[in-house]
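Weekly puzzle thread! Below is a chain. First person to post its structure in token form gets bragging rights.
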Amino acid sequence: MKKKTVSTMMALCIAAISMMAGFGCLQAAADETAVERPAEIPEETIKIGIAELQSNEEAVNRKNYYENYIAPYYNVEFVFSEAISDSEDLVSFVENCADAGCKGIIGFSPDSPEQVTSICQEYGMMYVVNMVRSASNENCYTDTYDNYASFAVNNDAIAESFGSWLAENASEDGEEGFLLCSAAANYGVQQHILIIKNALKALQDLYGLTYDQDIETMAISSSPIEATNDKGVHIYIYPGDPNRMDGWLSGFTSAIQTNKYAVVLGCTEIYNVVSVAVQEAEEVMDKDVKVACMASLSESLKNAFHTEDRFGNQTLNLAIVKPTGFTDTIGFVNCYNLITGYHDSVMGSDGEVADTNGKLWEVTDAESCDHLTDIYEGNYHVFSYEDINRMLGIFNPDITHEDIMEVIDAKTIDSVLEEMEG
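Winning reply:
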């Protein structure tokens, strides 16, 4: 296979962006480097590759977090990829990591999970990927591989949050209309499927709708479709990822310019991408457009909650937030445990690999977002070293998956805000 080298220029660019994006992260890292390592941490440096899907703000924050918070304390060296565009890129990066002496890969690209797991196994590396169980990685969860684990967010809880928000914020008759951006639901991404299904079900229950098609079929449609129903409520399902699909924004703009939709729901972080189109639609319709979507803590998220539209309302109404370092920690814990020989920590009671899922946080106002700024800037971390140590086999040889989930589930937005204030 043809090999590619990790781009030094890309690494320098990301480092430069990191300094601009959050000096607080670098300042915190300087202090944390001086922390004395416990005796349980291996003396030999462990190398781990990080396969990134995109070169965005979340990737920059993740690089800061891994290099400046995790690496010094746990004696880990991280190797970062360029943005992974397809399976070939991912396989090439895995091969480069093997050449560099990496013991594991933490993957944020969903491409070809079983193929990559098999290749990692050949090289003696662990593969921990940001996915939930699905048809594409089903075999990885059985006893075929002993080098695989997954980590993700709790998709059921996310879908329920969006559904509840719709039920609480929609009008009595649904006259405003709903534009549901289904992202990669048509590719089988369970989080996106569940979000759209819950949204359609919430609207169905709210208005007593009978759809012309079944909800599952509409949720996974690969083409934009109107969820036609007996009450004439305008519901439009628009698939595609704005970060990986040319022409996505123009299609979205065309849809919202029909003036049929004043509620936008996104399965991915779309608020910045659609902001101009939404503002223009508000001008034409003379109506407030509400926006709800996934998000990560960032300066742009703060700006969105602090920016008002022409009606004096915030431009973003709901963000299901993945705090900086939250899932990154979960991925690291699984990978580190596998590398250090604690395979049972990723196994469920059924003898198969267990999904390690954390619940994300609902943010609906600028004040809540502002309180979480210290996490984004790196001055506070959701998981302390003590928290992480509780999840590692080197400190707890009898560690189980249930033990790890107890630590993860305890980290709610309320508990973290209380810790920060205390």
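Puzzle host: Confirmed. Bonus trivia for everyone else. DSSP finds 17 helices and 13 strands in the chain.
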